[in-house]
Amino acid sequence: MRTYEAMDSVLIRATTLPESVEFPCWPDLAGSDVVGWREWLRRVWGISGFADAVTVASPVLAAQVRRQIATRPPAGDDEVRVRRLVETLARYLLRWAGRATPFGLFAGVAPVEVGGRAVARVGGRHQPVFRPDGECVDRQVRRIEQRLETLRTVEVRTNSLGFARGGSWIVHASLD
């Protein structure tokens, strides 16, 4: 049985919210100001980086927002639907502003160097890095294994760091 093992590395997580962002005034959801709510959606959607982050996190939500902020509102959209959309986007904004959970493009992680004095440098040269999960890798491998012409060109390497778990052979991906 493996127990917890300390590592000699540290990561920090931080929000990607730009310092200069000013949120528009929160909408009054007590009434039924659908026109005002759509204007709030339009202003929030225009915040630098927000639309991209929401689109990565929830393409369906992003499509709903784009429909609402179109020049003409979709026929049949009711007050309840627009209110829910505003509430959902407000939750995303609050998460982005105050909870640095690495979720899509809302926050990220960076390595930390441990030293004798605390110093933090935050810059603007951040780059999103996408790493496929196990299911994505498995789908790609299965697709490649079905194509003989591709399979003949694949370089095969051994890795002695793998181990058996159940009926599978587990090999951790390199993070180089």
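Next protein, fold it too.
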Amino acid sequence: MLPTNICKLPNMQTLRIVLCTKLQKLPRELGNLASLRHLYLKTKEHNLPEKGLGSLTLLQSLSIFGCEYLVSLFEGMQKLTKLRTLVISDCPRLTALPRGIVHL
């Protein structure tokens, strides 16, 4: 698990969590990274935390790689109005995108 202290960096703009192959959970306070613009992640979670990721309103790119257990993205994706790039790769259990994605 990532230390929750990472969420106390409000000016962080890029977070790359792709080489953490054993990461079980993302911090629930991820939404505190108010300046985050680019997020690259790999996790063993089944669902991405809506409360955390839905609060990243300045996010411009979201890349999700090799999340073999991921079955769903969060429903509040329409809140990511600045999102310009969404990359999802090698997530075999992810079979559908949330309905709100059409509003991006």
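About the second fold: The longest strand covers residues 61-65.
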